[in-house]
Amino acid sequence: MKKTGMTVENVMDVYSGPEGQLWELIMGEQIHVGGWSQSKVLADAAGIKAGQKVLDICSALGAGLRFLERNYGIEGYGLDATRHMVDEAVKRTERDGQSGSITYKVGNAEDIPWPDSTFDVVWGEDAWCYVEDKEKLIEEAARVTRPGGTIAFSDWVEGPAGMDEETAQRICTFMKFPDVYTLRKYEGALRDNGFSIRSKEDLTEQFADYVDFYIRMLTGQLYFDALKIIGWDEKMFGAMGGEMMFMGETARKGGFGRARIVAVKE
User: Fold this and answer.
1) What are the chain's domains?
2) Where are the beta strands (DSSP E) in 112-193?
3) How many angstroms separate the CA atoms of 108 and 58, rounded?
4) Phi-psi label, residue 51: left if phi above 0, alpha if psi -120 to 50, beta otherwise
5) Which of 43, 69, 101, 132 is 20 to 30 Å apart from 76, CA to CA?
6) pLDDT tens across 186-215, in order?
């Protein structure tokens, strides 16, 4: 698909304002599909072990690293382009008593500010869809992963049925994505950068169920809270709901969804 023209600045605007608050409202601090249970599936598939150095690319509020530190005993490092998210991650990590094990930096996923072969694991949860140059992201992830190390991530992707250009543009514009990859395209980028695929899963059918769940939450229990976040603008709320319904319908047809990949650097 063509690029939408969305940039890292657009993403920073999203996660520094009301849209970011809405996503946290319906998805919790982890701000990714499935929350704790999906983080555990990914961590177990990656074979996360105590003492490993883990870099979370697009670490948002730091909940992924806090989950890994608390449940697996890792040494965590977070990278996010949005100052607001990093400041919040630092604050919440201090709140949870985990500052001694996790640190954060503001920075670009296409130019990771750590030396070669620093990390045992590079981690990501439903956020790399916001990165403009995903090829460069994978190249940089490979650079900072030690030989024998692991990359483990989930992301929102074009589903197995594919999307026409109009549908892809509509979803990416609503979500502020520059574009979306397919599972196959991520596999190719990983192999091109010296990774072998350990496991891969298309989660599009599951993703459609979650979109329906979020819509029910926003139009039911969380309606008041959501309206408050966007300044009581019911017209805007209706328009956003329509776009979410369109995204869910596309997911039901297999056009837009989610994938999980674990790969090892050779």
Assistant:
1) 8-206+258-265 (3.40.50.150)
2) 119-125, 145-158
3) 9
4) left
5) 132
6) 999 999 999 999 999 999 999 999 999 999
